[in-house]
Amino acid sequence: MSLYNSVEQFEADVALAHQIIHGDETATVETEGGPVDSFAKVLADLRASVGEEFDTAEILQRLTALESKPAPVPVQIVNTSRALVLADASRYLAVDSATAITLTLPAQATVAWPDNAEIYIQQIGDGQVTIAAAGVTIITEETLTTRKKGAPVTLKRLGADLWTLFGSLEAAE
Predict the structure, then answer these.
(1) Domains of the chain
(2) Stronger pLDDT, 47 or 84, i.e. the higher one
(3) Gap between the Cα atoms of 61 and 66, Å rounded
């Protein structure tokens, strides 16, 4: 599957998640894993169940089914150098540039990064992506630059101003 097909699939999954979250009390969404009721429908069914007879086992079963289907990660195309922002946490940044760009990771004092924040980055253009540290420590076994077109990397917050970077990175000399 090509990167562009993967992005198209991802966008389709985001649309399905939107329908599940924002659908009305009658909505059931067909997914690859089978039908999934909208949150409004689950709540309406829960209200109906509680009104007639409170069936804890059924409610827990339905909630567990919802938990097992994680929400897809939103995609954002990036084509210029910039600082990473809070909205980038749990986001997939598809970096599409013909020339090298830099994504700067600011300190906790600048951006209130949540515990366990992750930022997914993939170089989809010819230009390599360099992660620059601005008041943070980034732990990596290689450099802070993607290896080549198609290279995926992940930034993972380990603590205040402490991150790790792993994935397809250019080798350290």
Answers:
(1) 3-67 (no CATH), 75-167 (2.60.120)
(2) 84
(3) 9
